[in-house]
């Protein structure tokens, strides 16, 4: 068993430059492959490339310039386009970009993590654009012009799939600084860097839209706001700008936490967040009351009068503190 383990550890892992060159060579011969060969070999190659990215080490990536990483992604994408066919091409390319972004996020180097966060943002925005209404044509002095959707857009990914992937892959835990997730990926026992947290806006928006944002995620965000004033401003802005649909437990948690802060120390971001939470609390309370009335339950839908007006009380205190 010891010998087998040693042999497994001794398996040669090619460098990123070598894999890039291999993909380029395969791409050159694309016109000579039979359909049967494509359906077998390149489907297996796709799986192998995904496994290869998981086996990349920090040293392997640090030893090559950023241009080599960019070339690796371009050659793999070109190879998939040329060999997998339209039924697999989009799925393969988009899931490859997701896996690549995740791998970069799981490196201990902040530079690579930031690169991964940027790649992930690009995929999220691409998916979000694909689900927006098509731009309408407009009339100009040159006649009717057909509006064009900005490129690129996702062809296979959906917001629902992407949001679930963010949770299942551990990316949400890494970006929001979940200690258990960070330890599991050997990223230390502290929190994620504040620059990674700043780039979690698209993640929060997707999780909120898909109803996958949990109280645990909110608690992670709030814990980071307790570090210092600058971190608090970042967290409050993230909540205000991206968490547009929160449930009752999440609203009560946030209003309770922000109510424990000295009103005189509120930043502009904190005030905006309180206004946002207050509006959501009033709407949620009203919706629960209507549902309770329809179901013949107690008035208020389980929300006390004190809880219903928590946000307005905070806004009153803010007004008094700044008069």
Q: How would you characterize the overall build of this protein?
A:
With 323 residues, the chain is mostly helical. Helices cover 69% and strands 2% of the residues. It contains 18 helices and two strands. A two-stranded antiparallel sheet has the order 1-2. Strand 1 (138-140) and strand 2 form a beta hairpin. Helix 6 packs antiparallel against helix 7, helix 12 packs parallel to helix 14 and helix 15 (248-259) runs antiparallel to helix 16. The chain starts with a helix and ends with a helix.
In short:
The chain is mainly alpha-helical and 323 residues long. The protein has helices at residues 2-9, 16-28, 35-55, 58-62, 66-83, 86-105, 110-130, 159-168, 171-176, 179-184, 194-198, 201-209, 215-225, 229-242, 248-259, 268-295, 305-308, 310-321; strands spanning 138-140, 143-145.
Terminal CA distance: 75 Å
Separate helix tally: 18
Shape annotation: globular
The main pleated sheet reads as:
2 strands, antiparallel
**What is the CA-atom radius of gyration, in angstroms?**
25 Å
Strand tally is 2
Q: Return the structural class.
A: mainly alpha
Q: Mean pLDDT score, rounded? A: 87
Order of helices and strands: HHHHHHHEEHHHHHHHHHHH
Topology of helices and strands:
Blueprint (H helix, E strand, L loop, with lengths): L1 H8 L6 H13 L6 H21 L2 H5 L3 H18 L2 H20 L4 H21 L7 E3 L2 E3 L13 H10 L2 H6 L2 H6 L9 H5 L2 H9 L5 H11 L3 H14 L5 H12 L8 H28 L9 H4 L1 H12 L2
Antiparallel strand pairs: 1-2
Helix pairs in contact: 2-5, 3-6, 5-6, 6-7, 8-12, 12-14, 13-14, 13-15, 14-16, 15-16, 16-18
């Amino acid at each position: 068993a010891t010998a087998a383990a040693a042999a497994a550890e001794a398996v040669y892992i090619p460098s990123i430059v070598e894999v890039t060159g291999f993909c380029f060579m395969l791409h050159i011969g694309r016109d000579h492959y039979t359909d049967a060969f494509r359906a077998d070999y390149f489907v297996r190659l796709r799986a192998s490339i995904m496994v290869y990215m998981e086996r990349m080490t920090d040293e392997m990536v640090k030893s090559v310039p950023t241009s080599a990483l960019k070339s690796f992604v371009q050659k793999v994408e070109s190879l998939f386009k040329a060999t997998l066919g339209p039924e697999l091409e989009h799925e393969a390319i988009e899931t490859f970009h997701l896996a690549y972004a995740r791998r970069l996020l799981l490196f201990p180097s902040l530079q690579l993590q930031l690169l991964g966060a940027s790649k992930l943002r690009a995929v999220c925005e691409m998916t979000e654009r694909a689900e927006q209404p098509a731009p309408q044509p407009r009339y100009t002095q040159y006649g009717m012009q057909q509006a064009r959707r900005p490129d690129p857009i996702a062809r296979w990914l959906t917001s629902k799939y992407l949001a679930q992937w963010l949770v299942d892959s551990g990316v949400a835990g890494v970006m929001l600084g979940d200690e258990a997730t960070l330890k599991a990926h050997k990223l230390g026992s502290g929190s994620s860097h504040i620059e990674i947290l700043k780039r979690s806006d698209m993640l929060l928006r997707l999780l909120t839209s898909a109803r996958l944002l949990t109280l645990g995620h909110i608690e992670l965000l709030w814990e980071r706001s307790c570090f210092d004033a600058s971190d608090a401003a970042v967290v409050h802005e993230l909540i205000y700008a991206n968490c547009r649909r929160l449930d009752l437990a999440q609203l009560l948690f946030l209003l309770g936490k922000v109510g424990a802060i000295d009103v005189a120390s509120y930043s502009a971001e904190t005030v905006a967040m309180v206004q946002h939470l207050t509006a959501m609390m009033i709407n949620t309370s009203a919706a629960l009351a209507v549902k309770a009335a329809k179901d013949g339950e107690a008035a208020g839908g389980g929300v006390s009068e004190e809880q219903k007006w928590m946000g307005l009380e905070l806004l009153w205190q803010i007004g008094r503190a700044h008069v």
